[in-house]
């Protein structure tokens, strides 16, 4: 995995922010630490930045790549946990795996990230954004992360960035695999599958099951009992079952059809409450949440000649979240249609795209709310221009979206890269983006039908150095969002007496990211440092659950057939609420890993996370796991 970096104009960070960055910038530039594992060659191809395959060396964007080897060596059980180790990304989770999870790119709200799985859009018309807790890591083969706005390419939602997840694709021959793993808190994992290619046909099948007894995510302490009046003594485990199918058929040398299917269900306990305000204490029943995700996609790609090629795609996704015995159920269905045209003339690439998106939300009625069943659509046309020649790279995009409720919205972006030397590259970009309110934010009992779309402007500049085994980069960015949607307990005009959503806030996301890598023989060093200031401009408070400083530092050492790894994740304090009245303490955790090839076909990975058994929280009252260990074996015959 590797990152291109860019940094921006805009208002300079606070003085202490600049002073803190300078020595770290020098350390990164000359020390060559990295945020990556094994950095791929700059000739590697990515598709996320411009929605078309492009060499990594030609990109004008801030991109990270996570491959399957990195995922397996991480020992992680959740997609968000893998992503949290990348530059510019933080997560927040209310408990263990399977519980509500948010992901912030450069401090931007979780709903400001457009997420795709094998080209299928994943989103929620309830809370907004992808349900990260419901995406099965066991089925993911590769991840591409684009930081920065991309609405001119992807439309609504891509204010903070875009994340694309890919499942395994069949290659020549037959490649079965099987794996098992065991870990702390009764964790058990089993997976298996086969992929291959025969003639014009390629395929990949995979299934996985994972379960854990979990731990008590709301442990009893004096603060919980006295101030909040409750605690919960139970263990909160989870079970996860998933499967995927990917099929491809090469109709002719220039035409291909791809089909993908994925299904996943994860059930997770979340804490019941014991009220200590009554005597005897009242024990409430334990609740369980279920996240179900289903995706399907069909793509026809054709290259008609050396100049013109097309791609037609139909996709469908369904996300369902429900709880019991305290009943709640929400379902989002998203259908997408894409017709993309590419014209290549030497160093020039012109794209013209037609796209339609259809969203539908259904919230089941409860004792306190009525049935909510609404839908909407967006139609879009976009144009793109790319130019790569010599030291110059240029990307221009413009897109017009017509929403069935809000009318038209035009977004654009411009990015330029210049190779100062063969090793040193400068980039600059600017772009606009937007997100329309969810159907729940407008039409639920907490909704306000007059909400306006959120919109943003972003600028960034970057410098990237690559020379042999050394990589280093810096990105500075500044983004402003208008009509930021939040919950207002004093707002009027909705059915609920507790308040409703409003779109009157303004936010600014600005910061600096430093990253790099250095290899010394069998030792690879890596790190990333983020200094950011995600702030509500109306109140001047920091946005909830986002730190001003966070970093990842690591080292891998290959010795005697083993790869030994050490990783430190650290974060400064955050606030749990918009009023900045409840602090979440900073933390530093150490993770250790080891992997080796026992036989030609059998690999072992072992990991100990939070070696120091650090007590820390992503969200108030919800503890993270203490020290945990994991050992896994995977059989992949060659």
What does this structure look like?
The chain is mainly β and 638 residues long. It is built from six helices and 39 strands. The strands form seven sheets. The protein has a 22-stranded antiparallel beta barrel. The two termini are 24 Å apart. The model is unreliable at 1-40, 222-229 and 274-279 (pLDDT under 50).
Radius of gyration: 24 Å
User: Helix share of residues?
Assistant: under 10%
The fraction of residues assigned to DSSP E strands is over 45%
Number of helices: 6
Instruction: Let me know the average pLDDT.
Output: 88
Q: Which ranges are low-confidence, i.e. pLDDT below 50, for 5 or more consecutive residues?
A: 1-40, 222-229, 274-279
Helical/strand content category? mainly beta
Number of strands: 39
Main sheet: strands, sense, barrel: 22 strands, antiparallel, barrel
CA-CA gap between termini: 24 Å
Given the C-alpha coordinates, what overall shape results?
A: globular
Regarding quaternary structure, what we see is single chain
């Amino acid at each position: 995995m590797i990152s291109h970096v860019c940094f921006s104009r805009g208002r300079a960070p606070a003085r202490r922010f600049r002073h803190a960055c300078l020595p770290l910038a020098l350390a990164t530039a000359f020390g060559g630490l990295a945020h990556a594992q094994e950095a791929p060659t700059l000739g590697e191809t990515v598709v996320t930045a411009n929605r078309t395959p492009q060499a990594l060396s030609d990109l004008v964007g801030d991109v990270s790549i996570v491959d399957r080897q990195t995922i397996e060596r991480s020992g992680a059980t959740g997609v968000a946990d893998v992503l949290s180790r990348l530059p510019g990304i933080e997560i927040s989770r209310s408990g263990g795996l399977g519980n509500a999870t948010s992901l912030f790119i450069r401090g931007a709200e979780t709903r400001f990230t457009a997420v795709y799985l094998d080209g299928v859009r994943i989103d929620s018309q309830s809370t907004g954004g992808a349900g990260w807790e419901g995406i099965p890591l066991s089925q993911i083969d590769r991840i591409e992360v684009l930081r920065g706005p991309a609405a001119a390419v992807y439309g609504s939602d891509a204010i903070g960035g875009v994340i694309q997840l890919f499942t395994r694709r069949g290659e020549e021959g037959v490649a079965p695999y099987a794996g098992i793993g065991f870990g702390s808190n009764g964790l058990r994992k089993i997976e298996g599958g086969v992929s291959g290619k025969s003639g014009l046909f390629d395929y990949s099948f995979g299934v996985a099951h994972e379960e854990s007894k979990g731990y008590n995510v709301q442990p009893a302490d004096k603060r919980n009992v006295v101030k909040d009046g409750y605690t919960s003594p139970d263990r909160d485990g989870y079970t996860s079952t998933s499967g995927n199918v990917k099929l491809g058929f090469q109709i002719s040398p220039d035409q291909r059809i791809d089909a993908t299917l994925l299904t996943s269900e994860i059930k997770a306990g979340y804490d019941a409450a014991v009220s200590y305000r009554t005597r005897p204490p009242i024990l409430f029943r334990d609740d369980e949440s279920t996240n179900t995700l289903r995706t399907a996609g069909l793509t026809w790609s054709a290259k008609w000649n050396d100049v013109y090629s097309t791609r037609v795609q139909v996709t469908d996704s369904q996300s369902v979240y429900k709880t019991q015995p305290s009943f709640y159920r929400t379902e989002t269905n998203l259908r997408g249609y894409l017709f993309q045209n590419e014209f290549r003339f030497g160093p020039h690439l012109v794209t013209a795209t037609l796209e339609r998106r259809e969203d539908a939300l259904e919230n089941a009625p409860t004792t306190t709310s009525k049935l909510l069943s609404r839908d909407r659509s967006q139609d879009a046309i976009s144009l793109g221009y790319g130019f790569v020649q010599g030291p110059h790279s240029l990307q221009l995009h413009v897109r017009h979206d017509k929403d069935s409720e809000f009318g038209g919205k035009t977004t654009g972006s411009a990015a330029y890269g210049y190779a100062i030397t063969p090793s040193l590259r400068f980039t600059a970009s600017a772009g606009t983006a937007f997100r329309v309110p969810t159907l729940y934010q407008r039409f639920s009992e907490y909704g306000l039908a007059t909400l306006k779309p959120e919109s943003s402007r972003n600028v960034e500049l970057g410098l990237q150095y690559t020379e042999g085994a050394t990589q280093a980069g810096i990105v500075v960015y500044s983004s402003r969002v208008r009509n930021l949607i939040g919950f207002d307990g004093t707002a009027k005009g909705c059915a609920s007496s507790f308040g409703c959503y409003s779109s009157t806030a303004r936010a600014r996301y600005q910061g600096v990211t430093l990253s790099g890598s250095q290899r010394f023989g069998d030792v690879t060093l890596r790190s990333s440092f983020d200094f950011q200031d995600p702030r509500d401009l109306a109140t001047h408070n920091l946005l909830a659950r986002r730190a001003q400083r966070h970093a990842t530092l690591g080292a891998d050492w290959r010795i005697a057939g083993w790869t030994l790894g050490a990783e430190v994740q650290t974060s400064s304090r955050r606030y749990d609420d918009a009023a900045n009245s409840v602090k979440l303490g900073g933390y530093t955790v150490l993770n250790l890993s080891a992997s080796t090839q026992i036989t030609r076909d059998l690999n072992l990975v072992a990991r100990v996370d939070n070696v120091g058994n650090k007590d820390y929280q992503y969200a108030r009252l919800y503890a993270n796991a203490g020290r945990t260990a994991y050992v896994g074996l995977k059989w992949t015959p060659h």
